[in-house]
UniProtKB/TrEMBL annotation:
It comes from Megalops atlanticus. This is Inositol-tetrakisphosphate 1-kinase. The keyword ATP-binding applies. It catalyses: 1D-myo-inositol 1,3,4-trisphosphate + 1D-myo-inositol 1,3,4,5,6-pentakisphosphate = 1D-myo-inositol 3,4,5,6-tetrakisphosphate + 1D-myo-inositol 1,3,4,5-tetrakisphosphate; 1D-myo-inositol 1,3,4-trisphosphate + ATP = 1D-myo-inositol 1,3,4,5-tetrakisphosphate + ADP + H(+); 1D-myo-inositol 1,3,4-trisphosphate + ATP = 1D-myo-inositol 1,3,4,6-tetrakisphosphate + ADP + H(+); 1D-myo-inositol 3,4,5,6-tetrakisphosphate + ATP = 1D-myo-inositol 1,3,4,5,6-pentakisphosphate + ADP + H(+). Its cofactor is Mg(2+).
Amino acid sequence: MAKRRVGFCLSDKKRKRMNLTAFADLCGHRGIEVVEIDLCRPMASQGPFDVIVHKLSDVIVEAEHDSQSQHLLANFQEYVSTHPDTVLLDPLPAMTQLLDRFASYRIMNKLQNSLRDRCVCSPPYLEINTSDQSAIREAVERKQLTYPLICKTRVAHGSRSHEMSLIFSPAGLSDARLPCVLQSFVNHGAVLHKVFVVGEAHFTVERPSLKNFPLGPCDRKTIFFNSHEVSKPESCSHLTALDEKTPRLPPPSEDVMVALVRELRAELGMALFGVDVIVNIDTRTLTIIDINIFPGYEGVPQFFSSLLSHIESVLEHRGTVPPPRSPAALPHQAVL
Ligand SMILES: Nc1ncnc2c1ncn2[C@@H]1O[C@H](COP(=O)(O)OP(=O)(O)OP(=O)(O)O)[C@@H](O)[C@H]1O
Ligand SMILES: O=P(O)(O)O[C@H]1[C@H](O)[C@@H](O)[C@H](OP(=O)(O)O)[C@@H](OP(=O)(O)O)[C@H]1O
Ligand SMILES: [Mg+2]
């Protein structure tokens, strides 16, 4: 059989972090050649590719204002449109929607409707595009968002997207940096469950997370933080330190996780993504707070073998994959 070629299009940081060289060795033993794609050179001269695995989130975000990134992206898109048989992990429109929290929160909201009987939800939120303080206060009340609120940048990926804040009162709303989402903070005992999906497989790891806060407005100053300081495996922050008396909740049931991943996989039409969930300490409801494109899979020793199996399965079933559900049917959400 002719050698199959899989191109990888990753940032230097991502390539090193995932140890692509080690993965290429593993693939070599199965007759699959791994090629590192250089987006600065025409892609056609580096092909052909049976599959391309990529994380172009930084390039897509930069291409909004940077002509060099626009050229890199155009090079990629040109190859994709002229080689329709090449399978993309993942399709560009599917992953691009997750770059925008306005879009990904609509997906989370939709998911909570389809998984209602499984007691899965996502916290109420607002899309904020205006600096009109009275309009924001009014919308927070109308939508019955509860304080504290967590404020997240509209752009969901890249180095600037992890700067967040906790807002404790209507007066603190002026600290929100636009455009952003405001989301009700849910007490969850400082435990984050990161679900990492690779094709048909998924793995859950526990991470530190923000500690509990008293419910309701108070005159505390806004807390600014970087999400990577609180929810990486090595994170050790005063914002995650729980009172020792706080009881630990049992982990979410695997049945519910399976249902959640199945629904999300179909909804997104993606194979490499992560979903972050917490368990509400008052209602025990499984609460979705974030969906990530091609995450780090830290703490998942099966990542390489699962990725290889998925690539082999894609190669085997090429041309017979059902199309993803249309992203058009998302509920309307007022933007402020
Ligand atoms: N609604 C919420 N209620 C309680 N805690 C939350 C909520 N949303 C986020 N958090 C906390 O803030 C952290 C960062 O949130 P989020 O996952 O949305 O950020 P991110 O920058 O997109 O993270 P990632 O690195 O996974 O992409 C979470 O790990 C969790 O500790
Ligand atoms: O595996 P987890 O802990 O979920 O962390 C991921 C974050 O969720 C992603 O947001 C990071 O991607 P960006 O650097 O594109 O934001 C992603 O960066 P990476 O693409 O360099 O792996 C990871 O930091
Ligand atoms: Mg994220």
